[in-house]
Amino acid sequence: MSAITREDVAHLARLAHIRMDENELATMAGELDVIMDAIASVSEVAGQDVPPTSHPIPLKNVFREDVPTGMLTQEQALAMAPDAEDGQFKVPAILDGE
Predict the structure, then answer these.
(1) In the chain, at which residue ranges do the beta strands (DSSP E only) sit?
(2) What is the rounded distance in angstroms from the CA atom of residue 95 to the CA atom of residue 98?
């Protein structure tokens, strides 16, 4: 894999509007090069017979099933509302003309 150069990092920094001095550019080029080498080594190991995964261990939802219980009636829901009209909560308008 090709090495990440200081010029590559400077170009990316300009695109991202990040100011970096010469020392930071050199350091970041070395760090990104190491990251790219690690990605290349993983890509070599993962063959066509290895399916892509988001997690190495199958995950199971540990939450209970969402079953509605104890619902309020419309009258109960509106009983403590500061203002209601036609069976609905009435709220101040925040947008003009809508």
Answers:
(1) 84-85, 88-89
(2) 6
